[in-house]
Structure formats: structure tokens, C-alpha cells
Design brief:
Blueprint (H helix, E strand, L loop, with lengths): L4 E7 L3 E7 L5 E8 L6 H12 L8 E8 L9 E2 L9 E2 L1 H9 L3 E5 H12 L8 E6 L3 E7 L2 E2 L31 H4 L1 H10 L18 H9 L3 H25 L3 E5 L1 H4 L4 H12 L9 E4 L7 H15 L5
Parallel strand pairs: 1-4, 4-7, 8-11, 11-12
Antiparallel strand pairs: 1-2, 2-3, 5-6, 8-9, 9-10
Length: 318
């Protein structure tokens, strides 16, 4: 029987990646681009189509899965994504179907990452967990009894936009104090300027022209006291917030995905400590903090591909 493939596409605030994936989770072909390369969604659709039209596997692609910020599973639209330059409502599912002539589904990027973890990653043994994506923004994919939670309108799980600091930092969604303004990579960078600390003037961060979240975590490992404060501050806000979030779905684990989570330091342990210090007693010592095993493989690409096989063919992934 001819192999069947899914085209998985991960749209992020910084980069876009696609991959052709088989039912075992093998990525046959992949490519990535900077998100800013595409001024319109149509330019993205055309670029991917032109990349793939002449490859042997093209005729065996049975569906397209897309993970995107504010991706609405029910409508196929990206709706008012704060971290994308495409504003308003973008009918991305319809654009891909019109160009490729292949069934397409769209979901939130964090939901796609959760699906990837459940099928191919560190949540294979779980039916109740939450994936927390720590990238340009903060997203969450909520799985309850083995099913993604979408809510009535497709927007359940926008935990990055739960306000954790009253009248706090201005968010791209135009509200104040959202979690992603503190615990995303951009939030970590904002902490460099906004945290008050007697160690700040002596930090190596002050000598860097455009310091990144990666710089903060690397300097913290080297003993830079101000960088350590930022890492601890970030872990404290995230851990405390996850303690509150446990009341919603009582997950067995939080799976942290993204560059911050993957850093070789003790960030996950710090998050766990603050989670346990702040959690309701009935949930104490019941919730794991796990790190994604699919970071280098792109859980969102694998997740959207798995979603295609499940939703369009109702196949079991082995």
C-alpha cells in the first residue's frame, strides 16, 4: 500500500516550520522560515505549495494540519493573534484547501504541541495533562481523559492570557499582567529592564546590546546574581500560576515546551518548588513537571500531523 503522509505546519511568532510526517512520526522533509518573511498569509501558502508540488510524496499527502496562535479549530481561522503581523481574522484553513485541494485543519499551536506530546513524546502514558509552551508567548494545551479541550468556541486553554499580576505589564492582547508578559522569552527579556535589584549594575547583562532569554539563563548558570534573580522570578510566577491552574483540570503533569524549558539548568525544579508551595492541599505532590522530549523534533509539527491522521482517517497511531 502506498505510504500516506500528513503535512504539519507550525506557525509561531518568530518562525514557521513545516514537515511531511508519516504515521510512525518520521519526518520525511522539513523546512523553516522566519515568520516576518510572509507579509500576508497567501504568501506563506504559495511558498509551501511551491516547495512541495514537485516532490514524490506530494500526491500521498492526505491532509494538512496547522498549529497557530489563536487558531480556531471550529472555524479554521486565526483570530486576532497578538504575536503575528497578520491582523484580524485570517481564514487560513480555507486558503490552504483552495491552493492544495487537500482537507486541512487548524488548531492552536499549544494544542498541537499537546497532541504531539501525547502521541510521540513525554505524555504517552498520560490522559490528563497540560502542555505549557514557553516561546515568544505562552500557550497551553489542555488534555482531559485523552481529549483536547477546545471549549464552545475553540479558544479554551489560553492560559498565557490569564492575568497573574494586577495592573502588571502591558500585553500584546492590550490587557495588563498576563502570564506571557513574565514567563515567555520576551517576558524574561523585559525583566532585565523592569526588575529592581542591587545586583543589576554589576550584571554582565548590562554590557550586552540586545540580551536574550538565552543570555539570562546562561549567565545565571555562570553565577551572575542578577540573571539568577530573573530566572527565579520567572519560575516563581510560572509555578504559582500552575498551582492555581491545577484547580481547573487536576492534571497529572505539566509538560513544559520551548527554549526556556529545555535549558540545561534547574528551571523545571524551581517551577516545581513554587508549584508545591502554592498549590491547594488536595493536589499536593500529585503533579509532575516534565520537559518536552520533542523540542528538537518540533512537537507542534508532529502534533498537527497526528491530528490529521486522527481527525481525517480515524487511524490509530502506532
Amino acid at each position: 500500500m502506498m505510504n500516506q503522509y500528513a503535512l504539519g505546519i507550525d506557525i509561531g511568532g518568530t518562525s514557521i516550520e513545516y514537515g511531511i510526517v508519516n504515521k510512525k512520526g518520521d519526518v520525511i522533509k522539513s523546512k523553516d522560515f522566519p515568520t516576518k518573511k510572509f507579509p500576508t498569509p497567501e504568501s506563506l501558502v504559495n511558498e509551501i505549495y511551491n516547495d512541495l508540488i514537485n516532490i514524490n510524496e506530494f500526491s500521498s499527502i492526505i491532509g494538512i494540519g496547522i498549529g497557530a496562535p489563536n487558531g480556531n479549530y471550529f472555524t479554521g481561522h486565526i483570530e486576532y493573534a497578538p504575536n503575528l503581523s497578520w491582523k484580524g481574522i485570517v481564514p487560513l484553513k480555507q486558503l490552504f484547501e483552495a491552493k492544495f485541494g487537500i482537507p486541512t485543519l487548524l488548531t492552536n499551536d499549544a494544542n498541537a504541541a499537546a497532541m504531539g506530546e501525547m502521541v510521540f513524546g513525554n505524555a504517552k502514558d498520560l490522559k490528563d495533562f497540560v502542555t505549557i509552551t514557553l516561546g515568544t508567548g505562552v500557550g497551553s494545551g489542555v488534555v482531559v481523559n485523552g481529549h483536547l479541550v477546545y471549549g464552545h468556541d475553540g479558544f479554551a486553554g489560553e492560559y498565557g492570557h490569564i492575568r497573574v499580576i494586577p495592573n502588571g505589564r502591558k500585553c500584546g492582547c492590550q490587557r495588563l499582567g498576563c502570564l506571557e508578559t513574565y514567563c515567555s522569552s520576551t517576558g524574561v527579556v523585559r525583566s532585565i529592564q523592569e526588575l529592581d535589584s542591587e545586583n543589576k549594575p554589576f550584571s554582565a547583562l548590562s554590557s550586552l546590546e540586545n540580551p536574550s532569554a538565552k543570555d539570562v539563563f546562561e549567565l545565571a548558570e555562570e553565577g551572575d546574581l542578577f540573571a539568577e534573580e530573573i530566572v527565579e522570578y520567572t519560575a516563581q510566577i510560572l509555578g504559582s500560576s500552575l498551582a492555581d491552574y491545577a484547580c481547573f483540570s487536576s492534571p497529572k503533569a505539566y509538560v513544559l515546551f520551548g527554549g526556556i524549558a529545555q535549558h540545561k539548568g534547574d528551571f523545571a525544579h524551581r517551577v516545581k518548588k513554587h508549584l508545591e508551595e502554592n498549590i491547594l492541599i488536595v493536589y499536593k505532590n500529585k503533579i509532575d513537571i516534565r520537559i518536552s522530549s520533542l523540542h528538537d523534533k518540533n512537537a507542534a509539527v508532529l502534533g498537527t500531523a497526528a491530528h490529521v491522521f486522527w481527525d481525517l482517517l480515524q487511524l490509530k497511531i502506532n
